[in-house]
Design goal:
- The chain is mainly α.
- It is built from two helices and three strands, in the order βαβαβ.
- It has a three-stranded parallel beta sheet, with helices on one face.
- Helix 2 links the parallel strand 2 and strand 3.
- The chain is elongated.
Length: 86
Protein backbone atom coordinates (compact mmCIF):
# COMPACT_ATOMS: atom_id res chain seq x y z
CA UNK A 1 0.00 0.00 0.00
CA UNK A 2 1.34 3.44 -0.95
CA UNK A 3 0.40 6.17 1.53
CA UNK A 4 1.58 9.43 -0.05
CA UNK A 5 1.96 11.13 3.33
CA UNK A 6 4.55 8.54 4.39
CA UNK A 7 6.58 8.59 1.17
CA UNK A 8 9.52 10.76 0.13
CA UNK A 9 9.42 12.48 -3.21
CA UNK A 10 11.92 10.01 -4.78
CA UNK A 11 9.69 7.11 -3.67
CA UNK A 12 6.68 8.83 -5.22
CA UNK A 13 8.61 9.50 -8.43
CA UNK A 14 9.57 5.83 -8.66
CA UNK A 15 6.04 4.69 -7.87
CA UNK A 16 4.61 6.91 -10.61
CA UNK A 17 6.60 4.89 -13.16
CA UNK A 18 4.42 1.90 -12.27
CA UNK A 19 1.07 3.57 -11.67
CA UNK A 20 -0.27 7.10 -11.38
CA UNK A 21 -3.71 6.29 -9.93
CA UNK A 22 -4.52 8.14 -6.72
CA UNK A 23 -7.34 7.56 -4.29
CA UNK A 24 -8.21 10.65 -2.23
CA UNK A 25 -10.11 10.22 1.01
CA UNK A 26 -12.54 12.92 2.10
CA UNK A 27 -14.51 13.20 5.30
CA UNK A 28 -15.97 16.06 7.25
CA UNK A 29 -15.11 17.20 10.75
CA UNK A 30 -18.49 17.18 12.46
CA UNK A 31 -20.23 15.86 15.53
CA UNK A 32 -21.44 12.26 15.66
CA UNK A 33 -23.00 12.23 19.09
CA UNK A 34 -21.18 12.36 22.41
CA UNK A 35 -19.57 8.93 21.93
CA UNK A 36 -17.64 9.36 18.64
CA UNK A 37 -14.84 11.72 17.59
CA UNK A 38 -15.54 14.52 15.12
CA UNK A 39 -12.96 12.79 12.87
CA UNK A 40 -15.28 9.75 12.30
CA UNK A 41 -16.10 10.43 8.62
CA UNK A 42 -12.43 10.88 7.78
CA UNK A 43 -11.45 7.67 9.61
CA UNK A 44 -13.99 5.72 7.57
CA UNK A 45 -12.94 7.30 4.26
CA UNK A 46 -9.24 6.59 4.91
CA UNK A 47 -9.94 2.96 5.82
CA UNK A 48 -11.99 2.46 2.63
CA UNK A 49 -9.15 4.01 0.59
CA UNK A 50 -6.62 1.70 2.26
CA UNK A 51 -8.85 -1.30 1.51
CA UNK A 52 -9.00 -0.28 -2.16
CA UNK A 53 -5.21 0.09 -2.21
CA UNK A 54 -4.79 -3.47 -0.94
CA UNK A 55 -6.82 -4.75 -3.90
CA UNK A 56 -5.46 -2.41 -6.55
CA UNK A 57 -2.10 -0.71 -6.91
CA UNK A 58 -3.03 2.92 -6.17
CA UNK A 59 -1.61 5.76 -4.15
CA UNK A 60 -3.68 6.75 -1.12
CA UNK A 61 -3.67 10.54 -0.94
CA UNK A 62 -3.86 12.35 2.41
CA UNK A 63 -7.41 12.99 3.55
CA UNK A 64 -9.33 16.20 3.07
CA UNK A 65 -10.87 16.92 6.47
CA UNK A 66 -13.52 19.39 5.41
CA UNK A 67 -17.01 19.21 4.02
CA UNK A 68 -20.34 20.99 3.95
CA UNK A 69 -21.91 20.38 7.37
CA UNK A 70 -25.35 21.92 7.54
CA UNK A 71 -27.13 20.16 10.38
CA UNK A 72 -24.06 19.85 12.60
CA UNK A 73 -22.40 23.24 12.05
CA UNK A 74 -23.54 24.57 15.43
CA UNK A 75 -21.62 21.93 17.43
CA UNK A 76 -18.20 22.77 18.87
CA UNK A 77 -15.41 21.28 16.76
CA UNK A 78 -17.39 21.08 13.53
CA UNK A 79 -15.51 22.59 10.58
CA UNK A 80 -17.64 23.41 7.55
CA UNK A 81 -17.05 24.98 4.18
CA UNK A 82 -19.58 26.61 1.90
CA UNK A 83 -20.55 25.19 -1.44
CA UNK A 84 -21.74 28.61 -2.62
CA UNK A 85 -19.62 30.75 -4.92
CA UNK A 86 -18.91 34.32 -3.80
Amino acid sequence: MKLLEEMSWPEIEEGLKENSDRHPASGGHEEHGPHLPIFTDTIQAVEVAKGAALKRDVFVAPPVHYGVCRSTRGFPGTITVSHECP
